[in-house]
Amino acid sequence: MIAEDEWLLASxxxxxFADMGVIxxxxxxxxxxxxxxxxxxxxxxxxxxxxxxxxxPIADELMRRNVPFVFFSGYDEIAIPEHLRFxxxxxxxxxxxAVSDALFPPEPQPGSxxxxxxxxxxxADDIVALLPKLRLTAxxxxxxxxxxxxLVERTLERALEDIDKRSAGSSIADWLxxxxxxxxxSRGASLLH
Length: 193
Prior knowledge:
The protein is an alpha/beta fold. The chain has helices spanning 7-19, 31-38, 56-64, 96-103, 123-141, 145-161, 172-191, and strands spanning 2-3, 44-47, 49-50, 53-54, 69-73, 88-91. The protein folds into two domains: 2-103, Rossmann fold; 123-191, no CATH class. The longest helix has 20 residues, at 172-191. The chain is globular, with a radius of gyration of 18 Å. This is Response regulator.
């Protein structure tokens, strides 16, 4: 979902993500319109100030559903509530690629010099945190919402069956994405029914 009240900027963002195969909700220019789409959103770009109203209630709804979002604003002086400060906050001068990376941070590559931050999460917690990304990947692979959800389900079922086959040093995200792509390739058409 793109919640942005500057039409040209919203249009550019929509085109960038649509070219990647993403289904765009909006762009919307008011908090009321954003509320209508928030329940269906799988990721969101939120201008903090939409026609004089803050989008923090929308961010709360997305956070409750574990949907990735990024604040996108032209104002430095707007204070983000403490409980939402974990979210990425970019200026409107940021590139479209920076917005994409803020929504879906790339995994650090081995030997890249970028240290990975240690996470005290269990494998189950890691998988739960990856669900929004898995759903987006599924939507990019299959253009049907129902089929995409079935693809995520099949991916998780296969992961449970093959948990012992996962190599010890592999990233959970890479492992799940490989399973998803294999299922989409071999059974994509059957997921549509």
